[in-house]
Amino acid sequence: MQQLDIQLTRDRVAAELRRSILTGSLPPRGVITQDHIAEMLGVSRMPVREALQLLASEGLITMHPNKAAVVNEISEKYIRDHFEIRSMLEEEAVARACANSVPEEMVEVQKLTEEAIRDNDYTLFNTCNQKMHRLFWKSSGNIKLELLLSQMWNGMFVDRSIMKHAKLSTQEHQMMIDCIVRRDPEKARAIMHQHLMRSMQRIIDKNFASQK
C-alpha cells in the first residue's frame, strides 16, 4: 500500500509540474529542485524525484546529477501530440462510462463546480475540475485507462482572466453527464474531443501567440 501511495503522489506532483510547464508558469530553462518542489507541494522528496523522472521521460525537463532539473523548450507540436493522445484516451473513457450509471459523486461535484463559478471561487473550481475528469476516468471501469490518464493530467488553473472558459468547460461537463444518462457514447466522445481541443488551443495561444 505504501508503494501505491507514493505512485499516486508522484502522479499528482507530475500533473502539477506538467500543467505549469505546458502553460508557461515554469518557463523554458527554469530550474526545478526536488527540495523546493517537495516543500511547495507539502510532500516528501521520493515522489518528487519519481515525478521528475517521469517528466524527463516525456521530454519536458532535463535531469542533472545535482538533483536539479531544467525545463526544456516546449514546441507547439509537443503540445498538440500530448493532447492528441490524451484526447484519444479520455474520449474512450467517457464513452465507456456511458455503459454505467452516473455516480452520485459526479452529480455532487458538478453542483460544487457551478457554485464555485457563481462565487468566483477559483480554488474550488480547479479542485472540482480535476475531480470531474477523474470521475469520468473511473467510470470507464478500466483501471489501466484511469492510470494512464492520471499520468497525463495537465488540467487548467483558472483565475479571473479565463472564467469564461471555466463556464463553458462546466457546461460541457454537464453535457457529458447527460450523455452517460442517455447511454450516448458517440456524443460523449464528440463533446470530450471538443472540450480538450479548446483547452489545447488555449495553451498554444498563450505560449505561441507572439510568434504568429
What does this structure look like?
- The chain is mainly alpha-helical and 212 residues long.
- It is built from nine helices and three strands.
- The chain has helices spanning 2-22, 34-41, 45-57, 76-97, 104-118, 122-139, 143-152, 163-182, 185-208, and strands at 31-33, 61-63, 68-71.
- α1 packs across α3 and α5 (104-118) runs antiparallel to α6.
- The longest helix has 24 residues, at 185-208.
Task: Tell me briefly what this model is.
By secondary structure, the protein is mainly alpha-helical.
Helix segment tally = 9
Shape: globular
Largest sheet: 3 strands, antiparallel
- Rg is 17 Å
Taking all residues together, what is the mean pLDDT?
88
End-to-end separation: 49 Å
Low-confidence stretches: 1-6
Helix/strand structural class: mainly alpha
Instruction: Say how many strands there are.
Output: 3
> Main sheet: which strands, in order across?
1-3-2
**How much strand?**
under 5%
Strand and helix order: HEHHEEHHHHHH
The proportion of residues forming helix, as a percent range, comes to: over 70%
